[in-house]
Amino acid sequence: MYSFSFFFTLQIVKNWETSKPWLPKKRVDEVVSEADKLKAWLEEKETLQKSTPAHSSPAFTSEEVYQKVLALQNKVSSVNRIPKPKPKVEKKPAVKEEANKEKTDSSESASSESESTEKPSESDAPEKNNDSEPESHDEL
């Protein structure tokens, strides 16, 4: 059972290179290093167990293996949950801000030009008839 979950964990880590290239190499290397340590520890304990007489206490227990495999699986799942980063979006709002700035600059210059030219006095302006019909507007 433990060798199956250990093998399965190693397969997940191997697939990360192709399926999840955005994972930080440092974190992947930590998981691989931890897996190698676990594999070496297990091989060492199995070798020690083979040389131990059957009537003596075991070199390792299934609980020890379970705890170590579980710790490795937790590390694998924490790295596996790292989300794919969102693609970098070009800064379009900056372009809009520049366009708005240019519009305000041009409107300021236009208003300053109109201020510099002489304005017709109110008496020169044509009078509006209040009796005339209001402009009709198309309704939607």
From TrEMBL:
Per UniProt, the ranges with Basic and acidic residues bias are 87-106, 116-140
Q: Where is this region: Disordered?
A: 76-140
Name of this chain's protein: Uncharacterized protein
**What does the organism's lineage look like at the top?**
Eukaryota, Viridiplantae, Streptophyta, Embryophyta, Tracheophyta
